[in-house]
C-alpha cells in the first residue's frame, strides 16, 4: 500500500484521490480551506466541487502540509499552474526525499514558459526520474461517477511510471505509461487553448464541420510545438493528445470549452471570468504557450487568435476569419520530425 499526499482539494485533485484510495492507497489530502478539509475528513464529501460524491472513508484531510506530506511515497500536485511555484516554496522542503512527485496540472507558467515538471524540478531539486505527469481525457465529473476512463502516466524513469500506473489502476480507470513527459504535458496544456477556441465557435453557432476543423488543426499546433521541444509525435495520437483534445473541446463539462462558449455567445472577457467558478487554465497559459512557440519558430495561429481575444481586445468574430485566411499548405507541415516549420 502506497502512502499518498494530494496537495490541493479542487475538482480533479478530489477525484484522483478517490481513485487512488479505491486502488488501495492510503491518501491524505491537503487544502488551504479549513472548511473543505474538515468536510472531507469528517463527512467524506467535497460538496463545493462534487455535491453528489461520497469519498472513501480511508481518505483523510488536513490544512497542515507537514501532516499531509509525512511519510508520503507519492505526492500528487493538484494546484492551479500559476500558484504551483509559490506553494512549493512554502512547503516543498517537507516532501520526503524519495517520494514520486506527480503533476495533474495542465498549464504553462507565466513569465518563465516552464512546464509544470520543470517548475517542480527547479523548486524541489528532484531528479527527472522522480517527477511524473498524468494527462488524458479525464473529465473529473465522469470519473467521479465511475464511468470507464483512461489516461497517460508519464515519467522518464520506466519504473516510476509503472509504479504510478499501478497506484491508480481501478476497474473504472485505466492508465497507460510512457516516458514522454514533454509530449504528455504539452498535450494537456495546449488542448485547453484549443478548447477555448472550439467553445467560441460553438457559442457563435458554428457547426460540426467548423469545430472538427478547429480541433484537427489545433492538434497539428500541439504536435508542431511538441516536436520542436523534443516530444515523441506518437504521443499526440494517443490519450494525452487527441483523446484529451476531443473530450475537452466537446464536453459541456469542460471549463475551458465553457469559457470559450460564453465568449462566443457575447459575454466580454471580464463577464466570462466573473461567471467562471473554477480555474480556466487556458486564460493564463495561452500567453506563455504562444511565447514558447515564438521562441522555437513554431506557427500556432489558433493559439495566437485566442491570445488576441483574451488579452488584446480582439473580437471573437475574428477567430473564424483569421482561420480561413491562412495560406493553404501541406497538411502535415512541421508535424513530422525533420519537416520544415
Architecture overview:
The chain has 15 helices and eight strands. The chain has an eight-stranded mixed β-sheet, with helices on both faces. Strand 4 (about 75), helix 4 (about 85-90) and strand 5 (about 100-105) form a beta-alpha-beta unit. Helix 8 (about 180-205) packs antiparallel against helix 9 (about 210-230), helix 8 crosses helix 13 and helix 9 packs antiparallel against helix 10 (about 240-250). By secondary structure, the chain is of the alpha/beta class. Helices cover about 50% and strands about 10% of the residues. It has two domains: about 5-180, NAD(P)-binding Rossmann-like Domain (Rossmann fold, 3-Layer(aba) Sandwich); about 190-325, N-(1-d-carboxylethyl)-l-norvaline Dehydrogenase, domain 2 (Orthogonal Bundle), CATH 1.10.1040.10.
User: Secondary-structure element sequence?
Assistant: EHEHEHEHEHEHEHEHHHHHHHH
Q: How many strands?
A: 8
Strand order of the largest sheet: 3-2-1-4-5-6-7-8
Please give the CATH architecture of the largest domain.
3-Layer(aba) Sandwich
- The helix fraction, in percent, is 40-55%
Counting structural domains, the number is 2
Shape: globular
Query: Largest sheet, if any?
Result: 8 strands, mixed
In angstroms, what is the radius of gyration? 19 Å
Quickly give the structural class: alpha/beta
Query: Ranges with pLDDT <50 over ≥5 residues?
Result: 337-341
